[in-house]
Design goal:
By secondary structure, this protein is an alpha/beta fold. Helices cover 37% and strands 21% of the residues. Helix 6 links the parallel strand 9 (173-178) and strand 10 (203-207). The longest helix is centred in the first third of the chain and has 21 residues, at 99-119.
Length: 493
């Protein structure tokens, strides 16, 4: 058996084991075998990381000129480009995501650091039209302080960039908690951050379990903001924890994203978009388009074409360049998917393709593209977030009907519309209660495009120009401009 790769935590510019010396193994989803050992952060490790970040915040980092902080962000971006293949390979081994995506994504994520490097010196204050004589009042934006960034396993480089880049640009310091399910790539990323020469303690990286690591981090009295991506249940714990330190919270949570295909849609384009939305990354995406509504006039024809396309998807080893779908990340997901499919079939759902573990699952966590016809969009696979390659398909007749059905769910992250009628695409986009709507496309990201949802999908936006302001606070400064002394000191004016 090959020797397991060993990682350490990055705290205050040093590489450390856990204070308790506890470690845990991370598994390769392709074969269900351990491949690396990582330290399990204790409450004292968290305290050490937060205090290191606070020390850095009280030091030179927020005092640097914005363009100087921007230079560090550009350096991080360049490191990502230079090491995209390494980062992609590590992420693939640890998560099962196919290498053709992780390699490309590491390259593209560099653009986020470039984007916020450019914004660092462009955040302006205001001069207030104040209603007082001899007074000049201005606002400016100041950094918040220590940010706790909690990221999931499925898109760690992307979901770290949307937090870390704007936070650093505005002069904050950060403690990153990597997911315990696949933490390795974040430690590799920390090595690259160290190479930029960024001041010690500005960025800290650790991993561990919800208790004690996550709890200690989200309740620490020096943490001023928690930026979390993950599931709604964990988010509720974080909100409760934030009452202990009165920290700000932003939440990017799950989804059960609906996609509507009207009878005038370009079918080949729609099939490609739907395939990308639910079978890309093996369906392990928070914006996965997992609820599909087909207008009655094209239902049978379109579903037949889509099923044939799904059956052609090549399943295989995630490092293989020809592989289109790799394994799921962990066994728990496999069990959740199987449980929901079983209940859906018992309640009348009809499996068009897939539905059972792939033969490769004898060793890893492989599950094939699965399409299920559902008469009721409240059946388990159509209602619950599965985080896997399972598509629930339903009929609709009118625009009004499909809008009602698309909105009839607890989540509101993403949505999709396929139609040749521009006006209808705009109407449906405006009517669907979701933070993101894709019209005649799907599964796109950009540094300039805000990302986030409503309802149980969370609140706050990541990426885009406005998100940088979420990592600042407004400060008001009053100037008295007269040479004469102020009047009555006992009367507020």
């Amino acid at each position: 058996m090959p020797e397991l790769k060993k990682y350490k935590m990055f705290i205050g510019g040093e590489w450390l084991d856990s204070d308790t010396k506890k470690t845990f193994e991370t598994l390769n989803p392709e074969n269900n075998k351990p491949w690396a050992i990582v330290p399990e952060a204790s409450a004292s490790d968290v305290d050490k990381a937060v205090k290191a970040a606070q020390k850095a915040f009280e030091g030179e980092w927020p005092k640097l000129l914005p363009r100087e902080r921007g230079k560090f962000l550009r350096a991080i971006g360049n490191k990502l480009r230079e090491n995209a293949e390494l980062l992609g390979r590590i992420e693939t081994i640890d998560t099962g995501k196919i290498f053709r995506e992780t390699n490309q994504q590491a390259n593209y994520i560099a653009e986020y650091y470039d984007y916020y490097a450019g914004l660092a010196d462009k955040v302006e204050g205001t001069v207030l039209p104040i209603d007082k004589p001899n007074i000049q009042a201005i606002t400016s934006r100041i950094p918040i302080g220590v940010i706790a960034a909690i990221v999931p396993w499925n898109s760690q480089m992307f979901l770290t960039a949307t937090k870390l880049a704007p936070a650093l640009a505005m002069g904050n310091t950060v403690v990153i908690k990597s997911s315990e399910l696949a933490p390795a790539v974040m430690f590799e990323f920390a090595k690259l951050i160290e190479e930029t020469g960024i001041p010690k303690g500005v960025v800290n990286v650790l991993t561990g379990f919800g208790d004690p690591c996550g709890k200690a981090l989200t309740t620490h009295d020096l943490v001023e903001k928690v930026a979390f991506t993950g599931g709604p249940e964990t988010a509720r714990h974080i909100i409760r924890n934030s009452a202990e330190n009165l920290s700000e919270v932003s939440l990017e949570l799950g989804g059960k994203s609906p996609v509507a295909v009207f009878d005038d849609a370009h079918q080949e384009n729609a099939i490609n978009g739907i395939t990308a939305g639910i079978f890309g990354a093996s369906g392990q995406s928070c914006i996965a388009g997992s609820r599909l509504y087909l207008q009655k006039g094209i239902y049978d024809e379109f579903l037949d074409k889509l099923t044939k396309r799904a059956e052609r998807i090549k399943i295989g080893a995630p490092m293989d360049k020809d592989t289109e779908m790799g394994p799921l990340s962990n066994f728990k997901q496999l069990e959740i998917i199987e449980k929901n499919i079983k209940k859906t079939v018992e309640q009348g759902g009809k499996i068009k393709c897939g539905g059972k573990r792939h033969p490769f699952s004898n060793e890893g966590y492989y599950f094939p593209p699965t399409i299920i016809e559902c008469d009721n969009h409240n059946l388990p696979t159509a209602e619950n977030e599965l985080f896997g390659p399972v598509l629930s398909v339903m009929k609709f007749d009118t625009e009004k009907e499909v809008i009602e059905k698309m909105n009839d769910n607890q989540y509101g992250l993403s949505s999709g519309v396929y139609t040749s009628d521009f006006a209808r695409g705009l109407r449906v986009s405006n009517a669907v209660r979701a933070g993101i709507t894709f019209v005649n496309t799907y599964r796109l990201i950009s540094p300039s495009a805000p990302f986030g949802g409503i309802k149980d999908s969370g609140y706050g936006k990541e990426a885009g120009m406005d998100s940088i302001k979420d990592y600042t606070r407004v400060k008001t400064t009053w100037y008295y401009t007269s040479d004469e002394p102020t009047l009555d000191p006992f009367s507020i004016r």
